[in-house]
Design a protein that fits this description.
Length: 567
């Protein structure tokens, strides 16, 4: 290991040489109170920036142990440090000349508090991982600028962003305690017979469809209806009240633009924690909740969709249904069955993104088209069986069909973003106005059949490269020669989750996809390995751009791989 001044002299000596000579700086350098580690050096100014780490001993960083003494607090503090580094680096660094020259950046984060490989903390040290765009003039090394960046700018960022004495101690404690309270609340749901909780005073509307920050102007604070109000005494903030959604079948109804989908969106993202002042920081949902929608055009690999679809033309079987171009109804059926295969305990459905013919078949249509001519068994006839046979609850946004009143346990009406409990009124309407439709679902839901992925169908290679992975925004993974479209998987919230999912598929292929293990078994083994050893087990060297995902999103990615074959 050499020191800061050795690095400075080396960079000055490289000034003006060809860009590839930057490879000489890979290694570790001792600064006055931290270590700088350059893990990977980019090949040219336009390539992915170089990957760098800093490690501070706790004697320098100075974070009190109570801020990270539990897993919940540790993840929260790591999240805080990531955000602190991000904003400080933005203020201090600036692009210089071509490509990514001059960039000092850490992975961009959103409103969620997630486990990431950007920052780590222990009793011994604090480590932060980030990227540096090594500066160039054209394709020549700008050594003096590089020396300023690596030897001076990074030192300043470290001093301001990841030393406890430089930070707002009150803000850090609030951040950590907020996340701890959310985790605690989520753990209480099962015991209270709930699948979700929305606190009084929550701000659910967002700035826009592409901006997850809270709507501050004209936002209506959430207030729970009396019959659904529950209270908890959190470890840090004490007594909190709000709306508890019980297990079973819940409808969210109301007029257009009154907040139905906004409430469901908050619930679907309640599987994650959120930063203070997000407005949804204490909205919590059962961890095994999966958002379901129709997804025209997706591929399906031998999924048993027979609980929903049977008697296809030409006597095609639906017990091992495959297609490269699914319809709205077949895709929604497959999405549900794949989620059940992965172990979901709560389905979230919004009629706006569902296939109409999959959700309901009313009496008039039943009279016109006999059941033996209609392959689809609508969801309305299966949703109760899902709960009675498998204990799987469902929350539905439903503004267009009162037929669902017959199967609902709870009905919540939204008006001007405020909920009211209209369960008894909905039941009375259902009793007074019979739909006279004939149930089509049979006596039981049907089987949930685990599948065995075949190793040869999961191939991350391209050309001479054994593994070729690339992520595009939060929508798509390039996996070998294939593109996995995840735009309809709405519970992926950060690009880093996609990167980690892509690496996890490769990891699963190497270790557990053997032609004998079922997909649920493979998912469980991968997640256990990550839980025990961290996300670093997925990559060959430490990377700062991976974010923890749930096994449901990993399953979604594998299921959408168009080469997938199963037994």
């Amino acid at each position: 290991m050499t020191n800061r001044e050795n690095l400075r002299q080396l960079l000055l000596q490289l000034d003006g040489r060809g860009y590839k000579a930057y490879k000489d700086i890979k290694g570790s350098y001792q600064f006055p109170d931290f270590t700088l580690i350059i893990d990977r050096v980019q090949g040219d100014p336009f390539a992915t920036p170089s990957q760098v780490r800093v490690q501070l001993p706790q004697s320098v960083a100075g974070f009190p142990p109570q801020l990270y003494q539990t897993p919940s607090r540790e993840v929260a503090l790591r999240d805080y440090l990531t955000r602190s580094f991000y904003h400080t680096a933005q203020d201090i660094s600036g692009r210089r000349d071509t490509g990514n020259s001059g960039l000092i950046a850490i992975a961009h984060v959103g409103q969620s508090v997630l486990e990431r490989t950007t920052a780590f903390i222990s009793d011994e040290l604090v480590e932060v991982r980030f990227v540096v765009g090594l500066p160039a003039r054209g394709r020549s090394i700008a050594g003096r600028q590089a020396a300023q960046m690596l030897c001076d700018d990074i030192l300043q960022i470290v001093d301001q962003a990841i030393k406890y004495r430089s930070l707002d101690a009150t803000a850090i404690l609030h951040h950590v305690e907020t996340v701890e309270d959310a985790d605690w609340l989520r753990q209480q749901l099962d015991e209270r017979g709930l699948v979700a909780f929305i606190p009084d005073g929550a701000i659910l509307p967002r700035c826009s469809g592409v901006d997850e920050q809270p709507l501050l102007n004209d936002a209506v604070a959430f207030q729970s209806p009396e019959r659904l109000r529950v209270d908890f005494t959190c470890p840090n903030r004490g007594l909190i009240t709000g709306m508890g959604i019980p297990a079973g079948i819940t409808l969210i109804v109301g007029g257009g633009y009154h907040g139905k989908s906004t409430l469901l969106r908050a619930i679907e993202l309640g599987v994650y924690n959120h930063i203070p002042n997000d407005g949804r920081e204490l909205v919590v949902t059962q961890l095994a909740a999966v958002k379901i929608r129709a997804e025209d055009g997706r591929s399906i690999a031998s999924v048993d969709i027979s609980p929903f679809i049977n008697q296809l033309p030409q006597n095609r079987s639906t017990r091992e249904f495959s297609t490269t171009n699914a319809s709205g109804s077949t895709s929604q059926a497959a999405n549900i069955m794949e989620a059940l295969e992965a172990g979901t305990q709560l389905l979230l459905v919004d009629e706006d993104t569902a296939a109409t013919n999959f959700m309901i078949r009313d009496r008039r249509m039943q009279q016109l088209i006999a059941k033996d001519k209609e392959p689809i068994t609508p969801f309305i006839d299966k949703v109760r069986q899902l709960y009675t046979d498998y204990g799987v609850s469902t929350i539905l946004v439903m503004g267009g069909s009162g037929d669902y009143f017959d199967v609902a346990d709870t009905v919540i009406a939204m008006e001007n973003f405020q909920p009211s409990d209209v369960t008894e009124k909905a039941k009375a309407i259902a009793k007074a106005n019979s739909t006279e439709r004939t149930p089509e679902g049979g006596e039981q839901f049907g089987q949930i059949t685990p599948r065995v992925p075949l190793p040869e169908s999961i191939d991350p290679s391209r050309g001479q490269r054994d593994v070729k992975l690339k992520v595009r925004d939060v929508d798509e993974v390039v996996f070998g020669t294939q593109e996995i479209d995840l735009s309809a998987v709405e519970q992926i919230v950060e690009t880093g989750q996609l990167r980690a999912i892509a690496e996890a598929i490769v990891y699963a292929k190497r270790h557990y996809v053997n032609g004998h293990s079922t997909l649920p078994e493979i998912l469980d083994r991968v997640m256990v390995d990550i839980e025990r050893q961290g996300l670093d087990i997925l990559t060959h060297f430490p990377q700062g751009d991976l974010v923890l995902f749930r096994h449901f999103e990993l399953a979604a990615a594998i299921n959408r791989l168009r080469t997938l074959k199963v037994r």
